[in-house]
Amino acid sequence: MNPVCYLNGTIVPLTDARVSVLDLGLLRGFGIYEGITTFDGEPFYFNDHWKRFQHSARALDLTLPFSEEEALIAMRAVIATNSPGQRATIRMILTGGEARNGIEQVAGRETFFITAEPAVLLPKVFYTSGASMITYEHQRFLPAYKTTNYITAVLLQKKLKEAGAVEVLYSAGGAALECTGSNVFIVQGDRVSTPKENILHGITRKVVLELARGVYETEERPVPLDELLSADEVFITSSFKDIVPIISVDKKIIG
Length: 255
Hints:
single chain, 10-stranded mixed sheet, globular, D-amino Acid Aminotransferase, Chain A, domain 1
């Protein structure tokens, strides 16, 4: 069956989905985004993703054109067509819609769409033997919100592939922050720590903290990059990567 897309209230063939060339998402990169995975056809922690989507929408003064229930129903329909019986990668995007005078956002003109495709999983060896990361000095604009501004992450993809790494870790002022699409954790003995400020609070990050509490001492706090490099263990979390152990950062062996 041909893949479909949910666009502004209607499910349409993906090949027919169109967004105006005057859309603020295209003209000015003005929009928000959620990346969601599925298990057994259901979006993982959808309610938490929706709450974060609302949080990002408020920050950009965007109006959500549909309710949480309507978005979930639409998402399930797209998943059932595009990735039946398989784990899926879902993208839910809201932009400012067609601009006035090329830059002004008009409430009610927002563009909302959902896509889904079979998930492309990381090699199993990354989970069994660990993976590597590289670092880059950068702090995202509006880091607490999931905007569509991925310029730095896109530009770093070539460097990432050349290094054979799984992720790029952003740092600023000597502090480890987050990766291009993941959160980072360190382990020292029985203590699990993760950065708290100037990052996006990931949904898988939240799940890991919930699972760890009561078993380990957990901390959300500033994590100096030097401390990360000397940690017993490092791992990253994301909706599309799950939990990946990191065994080297900038070719420095961890633990």
